[in-house]
Automatic annotation (TrEMBL):
Highest taxon of source: Bacteria
UniProtKB keywords: Disulfide bond, Signal
UniProt protein name: LamG-like jellyroll fold domain-containing protein
GO MF, any single term: hydrolase activity
This protein's record includes keyword Plastid: no
Entry annotated with the keyword Signal: yes
PANTHER family: ACID PHOSPHATASE TYPE 7, PURPLE ACID PHOSPHATASE
């Protein structure tokens, strides 16, 4: 049996090609590869032949350059599958090979819309999936191939990709089904080096999962057993981690993806790596000057710890030098080569001011140092403290800078962001130019705790750039005598949902004097058109005066005594009366405050006043709260620094807290 899984070395073939083609012929060949094929990689005569039909158990073999694109679809080498090309991925030469490059945002190959449509193309029990890949960047998750659903505790299907910068193979089986499916993630120990070619493979024989990287066993597990457990609605894709509510694109290239209904032996993977040593050992040139793309900023402060982050133009290791006073006598480091750096500082003194400086060094000896900044660890319950609020900065760096500078001038201990931190969560440049650059002075000295909005689109950049308590899309933290509950209102909030159950549990056990929640969408708003037409009354949609999903949390807020619920989404400022059981109640009521004026286009109030609305203002703005013991003072400022709303709350403390 002929096996085209083993490829010949490449450089000799490439040298022959370069001497045989004239300049004109090379240009014509390049044009044809763009218009007729996915792309061509020279990895041995057998690659573009058709021995696949003779390979036992080979279900699909998508190889770059294998077949022409016709009507936006491409056929695999076995002639059993046609994938739809989504977006406009481009063929690009990367060192000794060419691959199809995905942009990491909205490009992928769709093999089948769901499991039924995939039919016999998906493995049922035993399987092998392998691929040649080259990554430009990594996020929290990514997949080169897969058919999965991984939403909260609902886990089904399989994928081959990466997790947190390391290659991974994931799978859920019927034998390990806990009712919602249970997926095992195998992760390699070594981090991915960006720009290099890798051969990766995952196998499952009905009992054991194995992950291979460049011909070597990287991890294995016997946690799964029996047939593969699929979610019927899951799409089968190449080039993306895609399920019902998440999309994480693959920013990089693939040369081929093969899926079998049998387990290939380890010797096959070792042979592939041996035959293609020149490809695996190729080092991408890097002439990029080492510099900060995102200057140092702070994350997740507690009384004894804080996280320092930054991003560099090329992979580097990072060291943070810090101390209560100069000279710097303390050091913390991340020895992993990466672009986005995350360095936790631990064992700090509560309520103390530290000074810090970040130093990054690339493997070729380039080194950069940041300016010297400062941070302060969290206070205990016996000291006054303050925090800022802003929302919907989106894509308006001038206003974002005005809000950030206004907040920093007030010197808050931290800031909460009500979501829509950028306009398009998948647009990396927006994170750099529209958030981090205009807000640098604030974020280098003050921690920002965000909630995720709809404009982030659950993109991996949100999870890459923020370091938050797990699982990050919802979380809680305490500061002083207050507890904050940060919620993802893009996801279901029905009674019995993951976040609803978590929130009730956390609220029930909270002993904090002040309880604040924050989610992007409003429980109450008198906006003119987001939740029904309140200007002309046109349309069949009945006004809801708020987001139906977020409103499902109101009973919990009232039951457990939430003081203020913050939100964004509506690009205005609005404060409600204290509301309890849909009436105004000065003693038991919850105050709902919309702070969505951080940069998004401003919106309008309805023509008639809503019964719950106490103060509405159409203006770019930010808010500020000071707290001590049983009293908080609230202020709202426009971007000129003019105070336009304020109130004070004082509550009776139980005897145990006096």
């Amino acid at each position: 049996m002929q096996n085209d899984y083993l490829h010949e070395p490449m450089p000799e073939r490439m040298m022959m090609a370069s001497t045989q083609f004239s300049w004109f012929q090379r240009q014509l060949a390049t044009l044809l590869s763009f218009t007729l094929c996915l792309s061509v990689v020279v990895m041995g005569n057998s690659l573009l032949a058709h021995p696949d039909l003779e390979e036992d158990g080979l279900l699909t073999h998508f190889v770059v350059g294998g077949h022409r694109i016709e009507n936006g679809r491409v056929e695999d080498q076995t002639h059993s599958a046609k994938a739809t090309l989504v977006g406009k991925p481009q063929p690009v030469t990367i060192g000794p090979a060419e691959g199809l490059v995905f942009n990491g945002k909205d490009e992928y190959l769709l093999i089948a819309e769901n499991v039924a449509a995939a039919g016999q193309l998906l493995p049922k029990k035993e399987m092998t999936v392998s691929a040649w890949v080259n990554l430009k960047s990594t996020g929290q998750w990514g997949a080169i191939a897969g058919c999965l659903e991984d939403t909260g505790n609902y886990e089904k299907g399989w994928l081959l990709g990466y997790e947190n910068g390391k290659f991974s193979f994931a799978l859920a089986s019927k034998g390990s089904d806990d009712g919602n499916g249970l997926m095992t993630y195998l992760t390699a120990k070594e981090p991915i080096e960006l720009g290099r070619w890798y051969h990766i493979a995952g196998t499952y024989d009905g009992q054991t999962m194995k992950l291979y990287v460049n011909g070597k066993l990287a991890n294995e597990s016997r946690a799964q057993s029996g047939e593969i457990l699929y979610e019927p609605k899951s799409p089968y894709v190449i080039g993306a981690y895609k399920d019902s509510n998440e999309f994480h694109g693959w920013e990089g290239a693939f040369q081929e993806v093969k899926v079998y209904s049998r387990v290939l032996p380890a010797s096959d993977f070792a042979a592939v790596a041996k035959k293609n040593e020149n490809l695996i050992n190729w080092n991408p040139p890097n002439n990029t000057k080492l510099e900060f793309l995102v200057k140092p900023y702070l994350q997740h402060v507690t009384s004894t710890s804080i996280v320092v982050m930054c991003e560099t133009s090329r992979p580097a290791v990072t060291k943070v030098n810090f101390a209560l006073r100069q000279p710097f006598t303390l050091k913390a480091a991340s020895e992993t080569l990466s672009l986005i750096q995350e360095v936790p500082l631990k064992d700090l003194s509560p309520g103390s001011i530290y000074y810090y400086q970040v130093q990054c060094e690339s493997p070729d000896g380039q080194s950069i140092k940041s300016e010297i900044y400062s941070f302060q660890t969290a206070f205990g319950v016996d000291r006054p403290w303050a925090f800022g609020i802003v929302g919907d900065t989106q894509r308006n760096p001038v206003i974002t800078a005005a809000c950030a500078d206004g907040l920093y001038a007030l010197r808050p201990n931290f800031v909460i962001h009500c979501g829509d931190v950028v306009d398009n969560g998948f647009a990396k440049n927006q994170w750099i130019k529209d958030l981090f650059e205009p807000a640098h002075n604030l974020m280098a000295h003050t921690v920002v705790f965000p909630t995720i909005g709809n404009h982030e689109q659950n993109a991996h950049w949100y999870y890459d750039y923020f370091s938050l308590p797990k699982p990050e899309y919802y979380y809680t933290f305490t500061y002083g005598n207050a507890q904050f509950f940060m919620i993802d209102s893009n996801k279901p909030l029905d009674p019995g949902s993951e976040q609803y159950l978590w929130l009730e549990k956390e609220l029930a056990k909270s002993t904090a004097t002040w309880k604040f929640t924050c989610h992007h969408h409003p429980c109450f708003t008198s906006d003119s058109d987001d939740y029904g037409n309140l200007t002309t009354g046109a349309g069949e949609r009945q006004p809801t005066y708020g987001d139906r999903n977020a409103q499902k949390l109101i009973p919990l807020y009232e039951k457990y005594g939430v003081d203020i619920a913050w939100n964004g989404h509506i690009h205005v400022y609005e404060r409600t009366w204290p509301i309890y059981q849909m009436t105004i109640n000065q003693k038991k009521g919850v105050r709902y405050i919309t702070s969505g004026g951080g940069g998004g286009h401003l919106e309008q109030a309805a023509a008639q006043r809503a019964w719950f609305s106490l103060h509405f203002k159409r203006a770019y703005h930010y808010c500020y709260v000071t707290a001590f013991e049983n009293t908080i003072q609230f202020k709202a400022y426009d971007t000129e620094g003019r105070l336009f709303d304020t109130f004070e709350l004082t509550k009776d403390l139980p005897a145990s807290k006096k």
